[in-house]
Amino acid sequence: MTMVIRGDVVFTQKPGCFTALEDGCVVVGDDGRVMEVTRSLPDLTLHGPSVLDTGIETPAAPHSEPSPHWKPEPHVVDRRGCLVIPSFVDLHVHAAQYPMSGLGLDAELLQWLRNTTFPTESRFADPEVAETWYRRFVRRMWRVGTLRFSAFATLHEDSTLMLMRLCQEAGLRPVIGKVNMDRNSPEDLSEGTSDSLDATRRIIKMSRIETPDVGYVVTPRFVPATTTRLMEGLGEIVREFGLPVQSHLDENRSEVDWVHRLHPDIPTYAEVYDRFGLMPEGRTIMAHCIWLTDSERELLRGRRVWAAHCPQSNLNLTSGLIPVRRDLDAGLGVCIASDVAAGHDPSMPRQIVAAIETSKAKTFEAGHEKDRPLTLSEAFYMATKRPGEFFGAIGRGRVGSFEPGYDFDALVIREEGDNPLDLSPEGRLARFIYDGDDRDILERWVAGRRVSEPFAR
Amino acid sequence: MTMVIRGDVVFTQKPGCFTALEDGCVVVGDDGRVMEVTRSLPDLTLHGPSVLDTGIETPAAPHSEPSPHWKPEPHVVDRRGCLVIPSFVDLHVHAAQYPMSGLGLDAELLQWLRNTTFPTESRFADPEVAETWYRRFVRRMWRVGTLRFSAFATLHEDSTLMLMRLCQEAGLRPVIGKVNMDRNSPEDLSEGTSDSLDATRRIIKMSRIETPDVGYVVTPRFVPATTTRLMEGLGEIVREFGLPVQSHLDENRSEVDWVHRLHPDIPTYAEVYDRFGLMPEGRTIMAHCIWLTDSERELLRGRRVWAAHCPQSNLNLTSGLIPVRRDLDAGLGVCIASDVAAGHDPSMPRQIVAAIETSKAKTFEAGHEKDRPLTLSEAFYMATKRPGEFFGAIGRGRVGSFEPGYDFDALVIREEGDNPLDLSPEGRLARFIYDGDDRDILERWVAGRRVSEPFAR
Predict the structure, then answer these.
(1) Interhelix angle for A193-210 vs A228-241, to 10°?
(2) Is B219's pLDDT higher than 80?
């Protein structure tokens, strides 16, 4: 059944500007994909609207339940006065670090991993801890409107599968990976190489049956924590199953030095992953990428890697300020990500602002005085369409825009009070991004289906 | 009637560390001031508790209404399991810019003033616009737990008085100033010199009668917008009434150049204010102070100026990264402020985080590699005790700490869910600062009195 969503539609087809339609319409086909965006309702008779849904007055009563079955929606969904925007996509988030948001941030990366992160992740061996916190994490992602993401779980097999099941139940469509780590890890958060590979294969097979909407992403923690034998084995899994990969790259200068000491025979950090088949073309996410060499930049561009820029994390851990303008000009696929919990806030609007702020701070660094800071529309694009194309690339539906053929993944935003300053839709979006929060999000849609709050208490 | 608040008490007596008492007590005298902080309840028999208030279960039903009259509270207020912390103090905020949070931030200061700020402020000539937005602003400050602040209104006399009355009615205790601006301002947001001075005197006199809890602060916009005749007249008012002063200083390099061109005979920007009596010792707030010369730093230290560091604003407008460690080491009274709406978020926790992040970004600037970033306890101190002492200095009660003699201005924080990671009170405070929001604030107290939500819709 074709559906029309009517409201103030704003999205980014390209980085430099918003496409905005005041009182516009998004026409969505019965496959949940966008058919067209129009300025008026010319297609209504064509598509035959039979029900007028003006559900604005009853936001507390969701019309659809999270369910594996498609439920027909009314033909016209009247959201006039609200913003209709693509939902957010976060390509780098650690689900198991959510409990420790804001903790231990007076340290840099390697000390923070040792003192704060590893002890927290080791708690996820306990299924009760995992269930409590993963439910909170999934609910929080729903709240802030991040409906697709790529998440690290922990090395624990059962709790990783639990996270995948909870996302499936909630109606979200992320990819998730069990962390692989078999060296330089604390005793209570380490695993044997074969155990690690066997568990990975089991999760891949189980999740294909149990969680069709939640994909698997191969997840070596980072080079210092993975032996060459483990990386070889993971490379085989990537080839065998045609899976995507996520990991960390060039985050912190001490980390980069360490990788050089561990692999003196391989010229750069990025080439270590590539050597072991862990940078498959067009389906790899590398987080941070702050300290890239020119040859690494060239390699990432060639492999069409999504470089997940995590601005809040990079400030919190004093990792560095990514030269984002230089990377964009070099054709790198830079997107914005939260890196919870080195980034302390799962909200992508907060990360968009942090990315813009970081690009402004960068202009005070020697050699970068002329770097043009990110604009709001650029940063919005980097949190919607660019990361959303990752899901298209791995066959899980293009998202992050309202162009024809994109899955209708969307947020309906209703701001507090009226609009006495007569702001344009773009102005209202700016206010939401900078000073709004999840209370302003009236509805969340995934692939044309409204998704209600999961695990409501 | 003496009162005891029982909970997990956290505050900062000095910048370097938290004072934390798990299940501690704050004893508050009947003048609303802290008498002592204790680890147990030894003084209960002494102070004679007769009522046990365990109001935790009914947060929606406030026990006291905003009222000019003191209402007796139960002797023991049982808030075990909650954090009890000093409420926040924001020494630089533009109340009339609240509607434009997040707008126009792809520009730098002078262009942003012209394109976004001045048009917004000029709308406050309309009392209806002013009332709508000032109510929202006051409610928002209450929500985020900033219960004392120093605010710029606009140049409009009536709406400035309206803001002062709304704060009085709400039970908040800020200082507020009508903006004075008689040059280099747009036609619909400018005033004659004598009109500006006359209106200022009228507001000072009216507010002394009508708004005893809301003080006046003399508020020249900034040097480029005030003629020497206006600055002279304002200096006279400062002397005559013994009032404090707030203004802007050394925010943006183009602004600094402009001041030099306007006053070629005066060596520095800071000395312009001082020349006209607008830097009275121990009662002056200067916002930003990014581009201070050594002689300016020395002048500010001598005048015991509160330097209001506005990290979010400084990033948003690409103004610069304040050398905060250098300023603190030089003995400057640096506090953290929001500068709404060049800072887009009125929440002081967000500003605390932004200040820490900025101090980390600064280490990537040449010559600042060794600057030690701010720690959380330092930044918390700079958002509570240090700015709170401004109110003590102007005779309106010291706030921002729980040391004896401080007004009991406090927030009771109740976090979501239980505490499965067994965090310390400081750890829970860190989580609140980094990833909490106003929904976690159960109660707000001003001078020993609970203040309920103003203008509830």
Answers:
(1) 20
(2) yes
Q: How far is CA A92 from CA A111, A336, B425, in A?
A: 21, 9, 29
Distance of residue B437 Cα from the nearest chain A Cα, in angstroms? 10
- Describe chain A by its helix, strand, coil percentages, rounded to 5: 40, 20, 40
CB atoms within 10 A of CB A208: 12
Q: Which of B93, B97, B106 to probe by mutation at the A interface, max A CB count within 10 Å?
A: B106
Return the minimum-mean-pLDDT range out of A46-50, A444-448, B398-402. Answer: A46-50
- List Cβ<8 Å contacts ≥24 apart for B327-333: B327/B289, B327/B292, B327/B297, B328/B15, B328/B378, B330/B297, B330/B301, B331/B301, B332/B289, B332/B297, B332/B300, B332/B301, B332/B305, B332/B307, B333/B300, B333/B301, B333/B304, B333/B305, B333/B306, B333/B307, B333/B386
Helix, strand, coil distribution of chain B in percent, nearest 5: 40, 20, 40
Q: Any chain A CB within 8 A of the CB of B434?
A: yes
Bridge partners of A34?
A28
CA distance B427 to chain A (A): 7
**What is the reported pTM?**
0.94
Each residue's pLDDT tens digit, B62-82: 444 444 444 444 489 999 999
Q: How large is the average pLDDT for residues A311-339?
A: 98
Task: Give how far A388 is from chain B: nearest CA, Å.
Answer: 25
Contact B360 A320 (CB under 8 A): no
Question: Residue A209: exposed, middle, or buried by beta-carbon count in 10 A (0-12, 13-18, 19+)?
Answer: exposed
Chain-chain contact of A123 with B421 (C-beta, under 8 angstroms): yes
Rounded Cα–Cα distance for residues A427 and A424 (Å): 5
For A38-76, b/e burial (b = at least 16 CB within 10 A) is: beebebbeebebeeebebbeeeeebebebeeeeeebbbb
User: Residue B456: pLDDT band by 50, 70, 90 thresholds?
Assistant: confident
Beta carbons of A434 and B376 less than 8 Å apart: no
Helix (H, G, I), strand (E, B) or coil at B184: coil
What is the DSSP-derived secondary structure letter of residue B381?
H
- The Cα diameter of chain A in Å comes to 68
Q: Which two tokens stand for residue B80?
A: 């075990």
Helices (H), B362-410: 376-381, 385-393
**ipTM of this predicted complex?**
0.93
Question: ∠A257-A261-A262 over CA atoms, to 5°?
Answer: 115
Residues of B with CB below 8 A from A320's CB?
364
